[in-house]
Specification:
- By secondary structure, the chain is an alpha/beta fold.
- The chain folds into 2 domains: 7-154 and 208-278, Vaccinia Virus protein VP39 (Rossmann fold, 3-Layer(aba) Sandwich), CATH 3.40.50.150; 156-207, no CATH class.
- It has 11 helices and 9 strands.
- A 7-stranded mixed sheet has the order 3-2-1-4-5-9-8, sandwiched between helices. A two-stranded antiparallel ribbon has the order 6-7.
- The longest helix is centred in the N-terminal third of the chain and has 16 residues, at 26-41.
- The two termini are 26 Å apart.
Amino acid sequence: MEKTIDKEVLESYNRGIEKNRLKADLGLIEFERTKEIILENITTKPSTIYDIGGGYGEYSWWLASLGHNVHLYDISTRNIEMAQEMANEFPGCALKTMEVADARNINQQNNSADVIILFGPLYHIVDYFERQAVLSECYRLLKKDGVLFTAALTRYATTLWAITTYGVKNELLGEPEFIEMIQNELKDGQHIKNSRSKYAGIGRSFFHLPEELGEEISVAGFKNVDIRGVIGPLWLIPNLDEQWKDESRRKNIMRIVRLLEKEKTIMGISTHLVSIARK
């Protein structure tokens, strides 16, 4: 069975690039609101939770600390090693599984999970039918009425990044090779680095439109698909890391995130999408 993600992308994860992504900048909002959404939709405690493509386990360890039975799977060997290292931060807490695995082939029985978290595979698996294979595997694993949480990158993620950092961190808007790259990905969602460009960001990926994400999940058999722009436009706030340290400002930010997250007309500006669906 071929790997589901590009070799270059896997190599970058094996260098540990994911570490602490959720602890700075827009990751702060993403992590906070996603945790809220998860807690709002998990009704059984303890739940059996499979965190598939869960990186080094930020969500896994958090959920285990709340008393859930969590199994972590990721295709990156280094991510699983970092997850094992995180045990020191959660004394008295353990994950049931920390295993290198392909998201299309998880070594668990049918109808065995109350909850599945799928927060990486759908944007690094660039072929539609492979994404459907992953969603079918999740469907197999979930119990009836079990909850599937998925994440996706929006179609405009790279373009928005380039616009908001232009003249400060990059000069890419003046580079023909970069413009060619984003023109192509805006057309079909396929994010493919141009080898002649100075762009050094995220590797081979697929960027969803909100309605595309919902359709893919529905085609796999899931019901009640609910798409959220989990960051909204709030990542545009200047000096977000500093603002976040102030409790009252943080509350204000999160209030607006919740207010706007289902507004379809601006959902694409969120950069990250989260969906909730049931088997």
